[in-house]
């Protein structure tokens, strides 16, 4: 064999023994025929999936931060939209133009009220088992001292009945509630769990449709024998009559029951929904009234029972709009004499209001209207069904911010600001007077002087009341709401009733 042939055979044997030729060297990626086949195919991109993107254990830290950021953006967006909707639907974004309401609504028909007999009113104050202190406060204040009274004797009349409405008490409070109910006979315990917006109002009206009654005196013949003769005499017994109106009220509201009865007395006896009208939509939940026929409708309607959960005052308006004769309903609105207490700082808050100050505002408004021929008021549209009768509806016109500020101004309260006493070191009597819209008996002292006040007012309590009520026994505040503190409740009692009325009975 030639030398060249031996050299060629030697290279071949070396290659078979492990020497790899660069041309045919194996690579780790192509260690199997299957892998070699994959290497030559085009690589496919995996399809994107929502779950894969949000898997927190992704191999890439960047992917984890991306999914966290996206989640936070979604939460922020949903939160922002929710707050925007709440803001748009919130009727309390700015203080109410209460001066406009008072000067624009019709005068109360005192002559008509005096000519009509009293109406029977059942007032249900929503409470709960542990709220014993507030119930006692109501019993000892407006529950006793604002009842309608006989003009001749001064004795309280029975045609306004007040009861506290509770759900089932918790086990630890059950015996206390039972003792309280037996003692005062003014509590109704509904057979349901305690709640506010989960059906309690519906159950209350369902109960009231059969049980909201007021006592009446009835004559009854009585027969007896005397000396062998049969004699007939008459005796007076107590009977019960269904109320003409059923009222739902909150326990943070101070209600002047005599004024409430007079407002309902001049309202239609049937198909009537009375209260503070908000946004031409619903009556505010602190105190509203329904004529008995509407209460009966709520209790028996096959449709209402399916719409019992939600904001209870708005639900009642929804039930009214579901009424089969909705166009015949009377929406009776009172926007002047229902307001929030002067220290609450809400959109409905201002000082305690009396007829003399409202009369002053009306005279000022009339004078301004005579000087401004362009002051015509155009009412805004509402949510009332076509044909519904609306009494006392005074829609707030879309005026300028300056106009709104002027007509919502109070000498006592400031929007969303805590109340501050005008002069340090005042007596309780002076503090109460400072809470009266317009300055009270010492009008001008609170804002124009920083010196201690020592001179007593010249008028006595009877003269002050006669002046404030324009020499009438009635015509003022009906409800003061949002009295969350017992102190505010007592201040309201002193401002509206006075110590003479409180100490007399």
From TrEMBL:
Gene3D superfamilies: 3.90.550.50. The keyword Cell membrane does not apply. It is found in: Golgi apparatus membrane. Its EC number is 2.4.1.-. Residues 9-43 are annotated as: Disordered. Residues 34-43 have a biased composition (Basic residues). The chain crosses the membrane at residues 64-89. GO terms for molecular function: hexosyltransferase activity. The keyword Cell division does not apply. It is a single-pass type II membrane protein. One of its GO terms (biological process) is 4,6-pyruvylated galactose residue biosynthetic process. GO terms for cellular component: Golgi membrane. Pfam families: Galactosyl_T. Keywords: Glycosyltransferase, Golgi apparatus, Membrane, Signal-anchor, Transferase, Transmembrane, Transmembrane helix. It comes from the Eukaryota. Its main location: Golgi. Belongs to the glycosyltransferase 31 family. This is Hexosyltransferase. It comes from Tilletia controversa.
